[in-house]
Amino acid sequence: MRLLRPSEILRIVAMSNIVIEIVEARAPLELKSRVIESIANKFNRYYLLVLSKCDLVPPKICRDWVEYFALSHNVDAVCVSTLKGIGIKRLKHLFMDKLKEKGSLNIALFGLPKVGKSSLINALKGKDVASTSPYPGSWGYTKGITIYKIRPNIYVIDTPGYIPSDVRGLEVLIRSKPIELIDNPITIAREILKSVLNFDAKLIENIYGVHSLDPLEILLHIAVKRGWLYKNNKEPNIEEAARTVIRDYLDGKIMFYLLPPTRKPFKPK
């Protein structure tokens, strides 16, 4: 699985006019790196934060994140959904305004694996030119640095995912390797389930058909229900169930999201 190197980030930012960092609207702070923003500022480049997959969160929550980044980080942010076409026209208008100032544009896209960089390029260009996949390291992930012309004098630089040193936690663990190669899928899946259960326990019941507050019991239920048993002892293969939970989270099937620090926790009715 090809990851972007720090030296490549410096080179790409240096040749760009606009630096876009893409984070998922579900967990922006968990995915945002100060490294990209810092390098963009060092080279005096315009830095923009794209909150991708905003269709997976309520519109009000995404707007609150935009306001949070503006007030707390002095950063411009845009809510985008390539699936629903949200925010694409706004980005195009922004690029055209910058084009009038610069004459030509090189736009660099950065982000952890599977946050939607290639999908954004396809939406901007209006056709599928960059391969996509929801899973790290699977077919469709970006293997190298590629430049796409999205309209006259506007070029977008697509980059492989990066794992910056200042970004840690669950999101990094599920994006840094192909799901099949994750060392501790059960531990990671349990953390995902714990977070979702604390958010809204009914979500798990609706998705997997099990009423339980115990992540391990939920994994056992998934394995048994789908017939995933070890051949030698017929015990439930909860490791495969754990990988399913991770895939479902990356797919957006598990509708879980975080709130900006300034908002009060959401209480389901």
From TrEMBL:
MF GO annotations: GTP binding
Keyword GTP-binding: yes
Gene3D superfamilies recorded: 1.10.1580.10, P-loop containing nucleotide triphosphate hydrolases (3.40.50.300)
InterPro entries named in the record: GTP-bd (IPR006073), GTP-bd_ortho_bundle_sf (IPR023179), GTPase_MTG1 (IPR016478), P-loop_NTPase (IPR027417), TRAFAC_YlqF/YawG_RiboMat (IPR050755)
Domain of life: Archaea
Domain G, first and last residues per copy: 106-166
Signal peptide positions (record): none
SUPFAM superfamilies with a match to the protein in the record: P-loop containing nucleoside triphosphate hydrolases
Keyword Protein biosynthesis annotated: no
Annotated keywords: GTP-binding, Nucleotide-binding
Family in the record: Belongs to the TRAFAC class YlqF/YawG GTPase family. MTG1 subfamily.
Protein name: GTPase RsgA
Encoding gene (name): rsgA
